[in-house]
Write a structure and sequence with these properties.
single chain, alpha/beta, Rossmann fold, 6-stranded mixed sheet, 18 helices, binds pyridoxal-5'-phosphate
């Protein structure tokens, strides 16, 4: 499998190179040159397999010869053993044809674990093979840094530095990061805000000289391996509901478009997905683009579903590349225009997008109302992200015959504040995490100064 850039000017890479590279040198994102196909028989054979084995079969064509089969199988077994539910991604029935796909049984209670638990092990494998060490730097406003930390904890060739704004993340969020005690895990609490953290990480990637030649790696949502890992649960859940003999639809709480793009990939590979519904919070660029061809930025809004608070959906570029017939130059032009001001997709591309995706947006008052309503109807307590997907299913599903799967992207205990605002007493953490508030923490407080942060990272890395 070869991977090409959405901007058309960077060299084609194999899987190993793509995992280690992140963004392409021409500013684009890597995508497979073409999507592998799974026959009806191959899809049917996934029924009843352990999750790790289904994952092996779905991902194998993307990995190609870059990892020996038995090594990859063992890696996947270990990856998904870190989940607290044996099914990894269990389905729950809500009514006659509405299902919830619980993607929050990983170590940090959100769906990002599904991909980051694998990405850490992939990086470790490739770096170990090359005899290199990798340094990961990332910034978090609180809710996603922990998934990267948990993903890197088992790695022996990767050191991770996660910057969070000191005293500006909730205690549970902080503790999910700072109670991970491992020699390669470094939590840096920055005396500043999230933007300060992000600016310092960006500057460090732009000029890596402070690392004296050690490799800096990004694990943000544009890494192809993350998309690939997310393709798997579309297959396992659809097969559980009767695919390939029956069509299935999905509703996906969306922000950077990584998760729902994985659904698109599954469909391109041959999975009979009828409808893909894109659910957003008040940061609704995807809904405006798909609904009205208004491809423009709006100021960031802080919502009750903070993991979906974005201005630009980075992975949308991967879809655009397909909609524009893999014309990298056209994508360059379009995204240049987009950076300069409001723009539109060309009419043909936009119509194609609308045939593929439905969309929906839910603001904060709506989220609170739906959390309460869904509980009344089904007895399920939804987290604020999942609430957007749940209501999108109710508003947008095309027909009554096709089962719809709403992706439950986080456990409600992770966003207790919203649940309390919706009128509930609170939510207990799952039993394997119930001692979180008693665990030992380790983190370092640093000023919001680039030099201080880079000096500390360089010192810890011995360079
Ligand atoms: C990241 C995240 C999303 C959005 O996923 P994208 O791949 O960015 O579209 C939704 N819900 C939760 C809980 C998340 O952490």
């Amino acid at each position: 499998m070869r991977y090409i850039s959405t901007r058309g000017k960077a060299p084609a890479l194999n899987f190993e190179e793509v995992v280690l590279t992140g963004m392409a040198t021409d500013g684009g994102l890597y995508v497979p040159e073409s999507f592998p196909q799974m026959s009806k028989e191959e899809i049917a054979e996934l029924a009843g397999l352990p999750y790790a084995e289904a994952a092996f079969r779905v991902m194998k064509p993307f990995v190609g010869d870059c990892i020996p089969e038995e090594t990859f199988r063992a890696m996947l077994k270990e990856t998904y053993a870190s989940f607290s539910h044996d099914a990894v991604a269990p389905l729950k029935q809500l009514d006659s044809n509405h299902f919830l796909l619980e993607l929050f049984h990983g170590p940090t209670l959100a769906f990002k674990d599904v991909a980051l638990q694998l990405l850490g092990r992939l990086l470790d494998h490739f770096l170990g093979k090359r005899g290199e060490r990798g340094v990961i730097m990332g910034a978090t406003s609180g809710d996603t840094g922990s998934a990267a930390i948990e993903g890197c904890k088992p790695c022996s060739h990767v050191d991770i530095y996660i910057l969070h704004p000191h005293n500006r993340v909730s205690e549970v969020q902080r503790r999910q990061m700072t109670t991970v005690i491992a020699p390669n895990v470094h939590n840096l609490a920055i005396e500043g805000n999230f933007d300060d953290c992000q600016a310092m990480v960006k500057a460090s990637f732009a000029d890596q000289s402070f690392l004296k030649g050690q490799r800096l790696i990004a694990v943000n949502s544009i890494n192809w391996a993350r998309i690939m890992a997310q393709v798997v649960y579309y297959f396992t859940s659809a097969v559980a509901l009767g695919a390939p003999h029956r069509e299935v639809s999905f509703s996906v709480p969306s922000a950077n478009f990584g998760d729902v793009f994985a659904g698109y990939v599954a469909r391109q590979m041959g999975l009979p997905i009828k409808q893909l519904i894109v659910a957003t919070n008040a940061n609704d660029i995807l809904h405006r683009t798909l609904g009205e061809n208004d491809f423009s930025k709006k100021p960031l809004q802080a919502t009750l579903a903070p993991s979906m608070d974005i201005v630009v959906s980075s992975n949308f570029e991967r879809l655009l590349f397909d909609l524009y017939g893999q014309d990298g130059e056209a994508i360059n032009q379009l995204l240049d225009n987009f950076q300069q001001g409001p723009t539109q997709l060309d009419e043909v591309a936009w119509k194609k997008a609308r045939n593929l995706f439905s969309s929906f947006t839910l603001d904060d008052p709506g989220i609170l109302k739906i959390i309460a309503e869904a509980f009344e109807r089904t007895g399920e307590l939804l987290d604020p992200h999942t609430a957007t997907g749940y209501e999108a299913t109710r508003q947008c599903a095309w027909d009554e015959q096709t089962p719809v799967v709403t992706l439950a992207t986080a456990h409600p205990a992770k966003f207790e504040e919203a649940v309390i605002q919706a009128g509930f007493q609170g939510v207990a953490l799952p039993s394997h995490m119930s001692d979180l508030l008693q665990r030992k923490e380790e983190y370092q407080v640093l000023p919001a100064e680039l030099e201080a942060v880079q000096q500390e990272v360089a010192r810890q890395q011995g360079c």
